[in-house]
Amino acid sequence: MHMEKEELYTTAYMARLKLSETESEDLEKAVSRMLEYFEKMMEVDVENLEPTTHALLKDNRLRKDEITAKEQTSEKILKNAPELEDRFIVTPNVL
Amino acid sequence: MPEWDKILSNPEKFKKWKEAAVFLDKNIKCFLEFDPEKGIKLSGTGAPADRPETEPADKPLSGIPFAVKDNIAVKSFKLTCGSKILSNFVSPYTATAVTKLQNNGAVVIGKTNLDEFGMGSSTENSAFSPTHNPWDVKRVPGGSSGGSAAAVAAGLVPFALGSDTGGSIRQPASFCGVYGLKPTYGSVSRFGLVAYASSLEVIGIISKTVSMLKNVFNVMKGEDPLDHSSLPAEEKTPAGKTAKIGLPKELKSIELYPSVRKTLDSTIRNYKQMGYAISEISLPTLEYVVSAYYVIATAEASANLARFDGIRYGERDFSAENPEELMLSSRNRGFGKEVKLRILLGTYVLRSGFQEQYYLRAQKIRTAIRKDLQKAFESVDAVLLPVYPRPAFKPGSKEMDPFSQKLADIFTSTANLAGIPAVSFPAAVEEGLPVGMQLLAPPFAEKLLFSMCRDYEKVFPSPNPPDNYFNRSI
């Protein structure tokens, strides 16, 4: 299946990627080639098969809603922020 | 392994080893960060000079240096994932698997190169530099854990950690002539592993010997409250020398590079000679493995990589005038081409209207693949497969373009889809390059894989590349 440029840009926007002109040409080809290859899956009779999400899965496990971290990492996490004002992460204006 | 005895605690040995590692890495470029002193400090054993040489090695991995793929968190070390978007990220915490090794005396000495976020088979997709194969620096070391495999093959560390989503431990191990274990899904905690495809991936080991592979796995395994998909360690008793090996008949019609075909034949012969019974099995879904794998892996990747938005951490485009522009631009500048391709594919196959055709169908095929293997394991104890259809290739080669590299994941991604353990072991050196073979076993049967690899190791141990740490230190 070939992916048209418009479809590619729509998909890219959904994934929050802004592609350049040359990049989109390359990616259009590469994505289309993979989608064509995926067509092979149509040969398989999947009628009576349940989907597998995880190969080995135990039941859902819940824990108490409390802080379990053994050490304080908040300062170290903030150190990785691109821009800070006191302990707040700065972003461009939202409105 | 006596050669690693006191390598970090004896100042003379330490200096010699460190100098050799720095020198050899100039050609191989396996490390993104190399800082043994920092690792020693973190392990709480003090500076090399302060440590008494007589300190008893009471812990199973006491004083053993190891390297960690740079998508696994080690506190105070960077965690770049081979990506520009995380080029300055310093990890505030340590992965459970690494903590367990540190608690048993092992010391992190550096972080190794990889294909960006684990996406690739050659380590060419690293945003920083490609890694070169210690057997021939003009060839790729494989990937995505190429840095870890190259570091072990060059003799710089006795083992290294990697991650395996579709073959990322086993394929570079095969290209570099060392052992690579992809454990049972969930048997090793993924806490601290940067997520790519959560239902497929697992932290595993690349090592020079089978006994090291086994020791490290035994320390790392087990349920972790910080990873809800982790599972308690079960142990299956190996069948021993009476184990039956299954050989998929589909292999006859799949094109293999001559040296790989030759090695497959010699491996069968050797195992027969050791007393193993070989019988034919069938994996009819083998030809659909790659498509199912890439639909599922890219779908999960598109969701997992949504977190990199340039806002809370990572590289940011400061010229952006609003938050959306900031995200669009930071992601576009921060991700490489292969990562963008996989995010686009994954986003597309999950789009409304296409889900049934791609994602749901792939998940159903995944069930068929699991059933095929379950059926095979009713009559055999392990399945023998090549690791990769060819040995280490040259970067940028036309016959191994990114698309062909994906098709070549056919033998490795099977184990990830089924969640079963698989090991890559060195089986020959052909035309100057190592060739690995692969054994797959039912869930939690790692012990059987170790014993079968150990038997092969007696006949053919991990070969040394022409230039390595050991022939330098003699």
Extended strand count of chain A: 2
Distance between the termini of chain A: 40 Å
Number of helices of chain B: 15
Mean pLDDT of chain B: 94
The unreliable regions of chain B are none
Query: Which sequence of SSEs, written as H and E, runs from N to C of chain B?
Result: HEHEHEHEHEEHEHEHHHHEHHEEHH
Kindly report the CATH topology of the domain at 2-233 and 456-473 in chain B.
Answer: Amidase signature (AS) enzymes
Helix content of chain B: 25-40%
The percentage helix of chain A is 25-40%
Q: Low-confidence stretches of chain A at least 5 residues in length (pLDDT < 50)?
A: none
- Based on helices, strands and strand pairing, what is the structural class of chain A? mainly alpha
Strand content of chain B: 5-15%
Strand order of the largest sheet of chain B: 1-3-2-4-6-5-10-11-9-7-8
Biggest interface goes to: A-B, 56 and 76 residues
- Find the count of extended strands of chain B (DSSP E, 2+ residues): 11
Which key terms come to mind for this protein?
heterodimer; A: 95 residues; mainly alpha; two-stranded antiparallel ribbon; B: 474 residues; alpha/beta; Amidase signature (AS) enzymes; eleven-stranded mixed β-sheet; globular
What does this structure look like?
The complex is a heterodimer of chains A (95) and B (474). By secondary structure, chain A is mainly α. Chain A has helices spanning 5-14, 21-38, 74-79; strands at 84-85, 88-89. Chain A has a domain at 5-43. In chain A, strands 1-2 form a two-stranded antiparallel sheet. In chain A, strand 1 and strand 2 form a beta hairpin. The radius of gyration of chain A is 23 Å and the shape is flat. Chain B is an alpha/beta fold and 474 residues long. Chain B has a domain at 2-233 and 456-473: Amidase signature (AS) enzymes (Alpha-Beta Complex). The relative contact order of chain B is 0.14. The longest helix of chain B has 24 residues, at 356-379. Chains A and B meet through helix 1, helix 2 and helix 3 of A and helix 8, helix 9, helix 10, helix 11 and helix 12 of B.
